[in-house]
Amino acid sequence: MASPSTAVLLLALVCLGTASAASSGAPGLKCFCPGVYKPVCGSDGLVYSNAKCMFCANSTLTVVKHGTCTPTYYNINDY
């Protein structure tokens, strides 16, 4: 049976491997999008459940705001 320190080291390596695949944004790699709800507004104006999910959708996006995007209201008289 493996020692507890060996098990912890193995778990850490697996986690690091998963994190590096998620943060690479490289085409063809599966991106890990956690089920944690911490909404962010992306530079494309869309709300994502968290920053990692936004990055998985498009690695060129940036976080504009933590939380939902501010809705844009248009005055009908301007058209």
TrEMBL record:
Protein name in the entry: Kazal-like domain-containing protein
Pfam families assigned: Kazal_1 (PF00050)
Keywords, sorted A to Z: Signal
Highest taxon in the source lineage: Eukaryota
Entries under SUPFAM superfamilies matching the protein: Kazal-type serine protease inhibitors
Signal peptide: 1-21
Biological source species: Leptidea sinapis
Record-linked Gene3D superfamilies: 3.30.60.30
Domain annotation Kazal-like: ranges: 25-71
